[in-house]
Design a protein that fits this description.
Length: 102
């Protein structure tokens, strides 16, 4: 059973823009993909995701759009499965691991 992750709208937008998998995205591409977010909200939310360990980047210390453009970001490999589940929860009950023995 995965960890219960609660994401808000901005976090979901950023994670989908980065791509939950083995992809890496540069700062300018991330800004372009998150055009509905203000740059301040984007940077603040991205730093929050990085502090929680969900997203890794070249540096956690960026304070302007010019600094962010130079960095690369990707979803942390340890959280990929749990974040996929949080982004697309399926309502199917988990299959029981119990086996009937005769």
């Amino acid at each position: 059973m995965g960890r219960d992750i609660q994401l808000d709208g901005a976090e979901i937008t950023i994670l989908k823009a980065i791509g939950v998998g083995a992809s890496e995205v540069d700062g300018q591409t991330l800004i372009d993909r998150c055009e509905n977010l203000d740059i301040e909200e984007l940077m603040d939310t991205l730093k929050g995701l990085m502090q929680q360990g969900y997203v890794d980047g070249d540096s956690i210390a960026f304070y302007s759009e010019e600094e962010m453009v130079k960095l690369n970001f990707h979803v942390s490999s340890g959280w990929v499965k749990d974040l996929k589940d949080a982004l697309d929860p399926d309502d199917k009950p988990e299959k029981s691991k119990r086996v009937r023995r005769e």
